[in-house]
What we know:
Layout (H helix, E strand, L loop, with lengths): L50 H10 L8
Amino acid sequence: MRIHPVFHKKLLEPAPPDAELATDIELEDDEYEVEEIRDLRKIGRNLTNCKSLVRDFHRRQPEKQKST
């Protein structure tokens, strides 16, 4: 079972002054470097790290349906 990791802001507490900041964040899924978008296929909408490439694709391929 997966639990949605959301909680109310009242449950937050200030960090101690000597707390170390996390520098590296590990992603749950693999991350890939996208070089170019060649076609549009609506399966998911998880393109948060390549928005400029999506814009470039729609600029080059105006006949393809834009995702909203």
